[in-house]
Amino acid sequence: MDPNALPFDADAMLLGLRQWVECESPTFDAGAVNRMMDVASRSLILAGARIERIAGRMGLGDCVRATFPHPTPDVPGILVMGHLDTVHPIGTPIPFRREGNKAWGPGILDMKGGNYLSLEAIRQLHGAGLRTALPITVLFTSDEEIGSPSTRDLIEAEASRHKYVLVPEPARPDGGVVTGRYAIARFNLEATGRPSHAGAALGAGRSAIKEMARKLIEIEDMTTDSCTFSVGVIHGGQWVNCVTTTCTGEALSMAKRQEDLDRGVAAMLALRGSSNEVQFKVTRGVTRPVWEPDAKCMALYETARRVAEGLGFAINPQSSGGGSDGNFTGAMGVPTLDGLGVAGAGAHTLDEHIQIDSLAYRGKLMAGLLMALT
Q1: Which of 77, 156, 244, 363 makes an SS bond possible with 135, Cβ 3.0 to 4.6 Å?
Q2: Single pTM value for the model
Q3: pLDDT over threshold 90, residue 234
Q4: Which pLDDT belongs to residue 347?
Q5: What is the number of H-type helices and E-type strands within the chain?
Q6: Over residues 24-48, mean pLDDT
Q7: Was domain 184-286 assigned CATH 3.30.70.360?
């Protein structure tokens, strides 16, 4: 099967993708995520899939599992896996727009564009009367942007029933794909001080915000070449005339090797208050294990490389930071290929955009890979 013969149309795909992008779906707004799952479910049904809606947990949104007709539906097949939650709060000033070969919008790169081109690849194969050797399942999840705390068990259970996992997260800057991901740990931080009236008795208080500020610098100064640390969220205080009792935060650590992350985790958990008059506590949050490519993963990559070569472009294999749900499936030993989505830049920023033509040529890559896997 020559994927070049399939009539992918990037402009037509962009029209469909626009509906997905304009249905904003920040992780913590379960209602918004569920509306996005409704939109995606309709698209999947129209493409011929059977839909299962999986209720959300922990106050987060639902997930959707879609299976496509196949003569051997019970054999281990191909899992196409992506998330439909985004980091942009509703109303963030990044409306959908197009200029030349670029299109902007919340979540258009990370990763609605990749999810949409994957569905288009399945539609194109069906429209051409082509049947894959293996059955295809699509799993859209709702909380990847916060580490997948409510869906990891679902992801791992689904992956264990499949022969391959394809993850259409954004392409790497050079157009390459991801064959491994760094380990990532999240942490919850809490500083506790002593309240007092900031105007009448400032000296009697001990500020939790001040303690958090000290610890923020200490944490980020722990960064080395082998393990990074950053504090991305801080909440503290309610009244400006009160010395703050409690301040909370969230931190992230990332390492290329699991042993380096383990040392980083130990260092974080050992942090204590800077004096006896304040307390500082670190608790461990969601952790993504390191995913290192094995022979089966690289064999999957080689299949994709040959497909891309036939389409006239190269896809270099590489390990990457910025974890994905591929961390879980790759670490399980299920052959996983990540970074199969659209080309673009600016993920998680107000400049998040895609290269429109990549919807078509990387859609052909996905279609060719789906047909090549046995």
Answers
A1: 77
A2: 0.93
A3: yes
A4: 97
A5: 9, 16
A6: 98
A7: yes
The residue count of the chain comes to 374
Contact 73, 132 (CB under 8 A): no
pLDDT at 333: 97
Residue 2, pLDDT score: 93
Tens digits of per-residue pLDDT, 93-126?
Answer: 999 999 999 999 999 999 999 999 999 999 999 9
Q: How far apart are CA 36 and CA 42, in angstroms?
A: 10
Q: What single-letter amino acid sits at 23?
A: C
Which stretch of DSSP H or E encloses residue 310? helix 295-311
Q: Where are the beta strands (DSSP E) in 145-300?
A: 164-166, 177-181, 183-192, 227-236, 246-255, 279-288
User: Do 184-286 and 3-182+290-372 have the same topology in CATH?
Assistant: no
- Count of CA atoms in the C-beta half-sphere (13 A) of 139: 25
Q: What amino acid is encoded at 144 in this protein?
A: E
* Domain limits, the chain: 3-182+290-372, 184-286
Say if residues 344 and 109 touch (Cβ distance below 8 Å): yes
CA–CA distance, 105 with 112 (Å, rounded to integer):
10
Identify the residue whose tokens are 């913590």: 28
Report the amino acid identity of residue 285.
G
Looking at the domain 3-182+290-372, which fold is it? Aminopeptidase (3.40.630)
Contacts of 156 (CB under 8 A, 6+ apart): 328, 329, 332
CA distance 186 to 330: 19
Dihedral pair phi/psi, residue 39, rounded to 5°: -60, -45
Closest by CA to 363, choosing from 171, 141, 119, 176, is 119
CA 299 to chain centre: 24
